[in-house]
Amino acid sequence: MHAHPETAFRDTDARAVQPEPTGLDPADWTALRAEGRAMLETMFDFLEHGAERPVWRAPPQAVRARFREALPLSPTRLADCHATFVADILPYASGNTHPGFMGWVQGGGTPVGMLAEMLAAGLNANLGGRDHMPIEVERQVLAWVREMFDFPDTASGLFVTGTSQANFMAVVIARAKALSVQVRDRGLLDCATRLTAYTSNAAHGCVARAMDLAGLGSDHLRRVEVDADHRIDLGALRRRIQADREAGFTPFLIIGTAGAVDVGAIDDLDALADIAAAETLSFHVDGALGALAVLSPELAPLVSGIQRCDSLAFDFHKWGQVPYDAGFLLVRDGEQHRQTFAADAGYLTRADRGLAAGDWWPCDYGMDLSRGFRALKTWLTLKTYGATALGDSIAFTCALARQLAARIRQEPELTLLAPVALNIVCFSYGDGRHDPEIVADLQVDGEVAPSLTRLDGRPAIRAAIVNHRTRAEHIDALIKGVLDRGRALSRGA
Ligand SMILES: *Cc1c(COP(=O)(O)O)cnc(C)c1O
User: Fold this and answer.
1) pLDDT tens for residues 248-282?
2) Which of 436, 418, 416 is nearest to 427 (CA)?
3) What are the distances in angstroms from CA 443 to CA 1, 92, 94, 488?
4) Is residue 43 over pLDDT 60?
5) Of these four, 71, 120, 207, 309, which has the most CB atoms within 10 Å of its CB?
6) Over the chain, what is the mean pLDDT?
7) Mutation test residue for ligand 1: of 164, 167, 213, 221, the one with most atoms within 8 Å of CB
8) Does residue 119 contact residue 286 with C-beta atoms inside 8 Å?
9) Alpha-carbon distance 330 to 283, whole Å?
C-alpha cells in the first residue's frame, strides 16, 4: 500500500524530499552539437542525391519488425537512433521528394523548408495566441495571402493542417452565417431549417465529410454532374438549387473546386460567384492544389473568380512545396469567422500589456489552441525563393503535363482519358485492362511512380506532376515504362 502523498510529505523533512533534477537537455552539449550536424548532413545528402535512389521501396518485414518493440524505459544513444533512422526509415519513405514521384497530389518539399522546420522546432512556439513575434510572422503570411487573392484587409485566415480541415471550417462558418451564430449554443436538434450545399461530383471526398462533421449530413451535399471538361455543370447546378427550394430545403453554400483531385479540372469560378450572389449563398473554393496558380501570370487566368469567394482553402504543402503540413483557410468576412470560433475562457483572458496581450489570437479563428509554427516554413519559402520563382515552378509542372499529354497522343497504344487543365494527366495503355499491373510494376521498379485511379468507370494511370524537381527525363521514363510493361503484359510475359 502507498502512503497518501500529502501525509507522506507532512511527515517528512522538506530537505529530504528535494527532487533530483530530471531536465532533458544534454549533459554534453558538444556531443549533441556534433550529432546534430551529422543529422543535418544526412538530410542534405538525402535531398541533394535523392534522385539516385528508387522513388519507393516497400519496407522489408525485418525492418517493420524492428518497430514493434515494447516501450523503451531506458535511454538509447542518439547516435544509435540516428543510425536506425538512416538504415530503417529514410530508405523506405513514400518518395514524394523524388522527381519521379507522380502518384498523388503531394509536394516535394525544399531544403529551405527543412531548415525552417528545425528553427521552428527549436523555438517550440505555440501559436494559439499571446504577444510574441511568431504570431507576427503568421500575420505576415496572412497579409501575403490576402494580397495573392485580392482579399480586403478585413479578411481573416490562418494555418491549419490541410484543406480537409479548412473545408470543414468553411462549412462551419457558412452554417453559422446561414443559421446565425446561435447554432453554436443550440445545435441542430430543434432546427427546422434543412441546409443544402452544392459541389460537383468531382469534388474531393473531404467536402462530403465536412458536411457530415458539421452535423448537416453528407446527403445534403448535392453532388452536381460535370461537363466534358470535368467542371461543374452550371445549368444542372441552377436547376438543383431551384428544385431544393421548391422541396423546402434551404440552399446555403456552393463549393467550387480549383484543381479537382482526379484530373485537375477547375470549375468556372466566376460563374459560381455569380450564381452564389444571385441566390444569396455563401461561396467557398477548395483550391487545395490549384489556388496557388495565381502565382503564375500564365496560369492565373485559369482560376479567375477565385478572388470573389467568401472563403478559400488551399495547401502550401502541395504546389507551394512547403514541407507537410501547411494548409490555409482564408475568410473574407473576418468578423463572421471570429464569431464562429471564438470562445471565452478564464485561462485565455487578454491583457493590455505583458505576454497575454496581443490583438490577434489564432485560437479565436479555429478549433486548435495549441498550434505549431507552420508560418515560419511558409514565410522562409516565400522569402528565399520569392513568389515569382514559386509561380514559375508551378507553371513548369503544367508544361511537363502538356508535354506528357502530347506524347500520349502520339503513341497509338496510349489513350488520354481527360483534358489536361493543369498538371494532372490520366491515360490508359490499350483498353486499360493492364493499367493496374503496369502502375504496380512501375512503383515496385522505383524509377517513376504514377498511381491508379478510376475515371468514368474504367481504370486509369494517373500522373500528377507536383514536385518542382520533376524534369522531361522523368516524363520520358514514364512513357517508356508504361509502353514496355504494357507490351510485355499484352504478350503474356
Ligand atoms: C489534397 C486535396 C484535398 C485534401 O487536402 P489535405 O491537405 O490533404 O487535407 C482536398 N481537396 C483537393 C482538391 C485536394 O487536392
Assistant:
1) 999 999 999 999 988 999 999 999 999 999 999 99
2) 416
3) 59, 13, 10, 16
4) yes
5) 309
6) 95
7) 164
8) no
9) 12
